[in-house]
Specification:
The complex is a heterodimer of chains A (116) and B (114). With 116 residues, chain A is mostly beta strands. Chain A is built from no helices and 11 strands. In chain A, β7 and β8 form a beta hairpin. Classes of the chains: A mainly beta (116), B mainly beta (114).
Chain lengths: 116, 114
């Protein structure tokens, strides 16, 4: 079964450093997403991406965050200057465009980001 | 504010028993409602997706119901197995496009014991 692949599985970084989280969505999917889950809390939407541009973003997704699809397979989330409160599990997801509303959303296994 | 509330927060049941998890939502407009299973440290895995016109949908031992009038959903698990131990998350898609953000509940932590 097709999977969304995320790397690395765990990233430790110092406060103020830049990090790039990488994702390989399912090949025939057209919509890409980043969500995050702070330990013990619910999953929160960050951003959706379609046709090489951001479709929607939440208030969490401020100027410190950016997304990019540098080639035909990768989808990245960059945090420019990490803060302690950025520590969370970051999930990438992708979905295919469909006529009806049974959109298949496939999540990756996540990258656990720890900012120290 | 669009919200998804789940109950109970946690549940412990004996292997082989059935259980029902509840979800109430205030998301509007409503597109579809999903139930996900999330193992610790893993990404959510979809169990069911229902539109507002569907009342029930099954996936093996999982049966989800939806009452779009009262904005309530339930997930019933029959003949529970140890591997069912996980968080079960109710997720609602707001808006009329299938690609709008998902609104997650906090989940119900289910523990199945022998």
């Amino acid at each position: 079964e097709p999977e969304v692949t995320q790397t690395p599985s765990h990233q430790v970084t110092q406060m103020g450093q830049e990090v790039i989280l990488r994702c390989v969505p399912i090949s025939n999917h057209l919509y890409f997403y980043w969500y995050r889950q702070i330990l013990g809390q619910k999953v929160e939407f960050l951003v959706s991406f379609y046709n090489n541009e951001i479709s929607e973003k939440s208030e969490i997704f401020d100027d410190q965050f950016s997304v990019e699809r540098p080639d035909g397979s990768n989808f990245t989330l960059k945090i420019r200057s990490t803060k302690l409160e950025d520590s969370a599990m970051y999930f990438c997801a992708s979905s295919e465009m469909a006529v009806d509303v049974n959109y298949g959303y496939t999540f990756g296994s996540g990258t656990r980001l720890t900012v120290v | 504010k669009n919200q998804v509330e789940q109950s109970p927060q946690s549940l412990i049941i004996l292997e082989g028993k059935n259980c029902t998890l509840q979800c109430n939502y205030t998301v509007s407009p409503f597109s579809n409602l999903r139930w996900y299973k999330q193992d610790t440290g893993r990404g959510p895995v979809s169990l069911t997706i229902m539109t507002f016109s569907e009342n029930t949908k099954s996936n093996g031992r999982y049966t989800a119901t939806l009452d779009a009038d009262t904005k309530q959903s339930s997930l019933h698990i029959t003949a529970s197995q140890l591997s069912d131990s996980a968080s079960y998350i109710c997720v609602v898609s707001e808006g009329n496009s299938g690609n709008t953000p998902l609104v997650f509940g906090k989940g119900t932590r289910l523990s199945v014991i022998a």
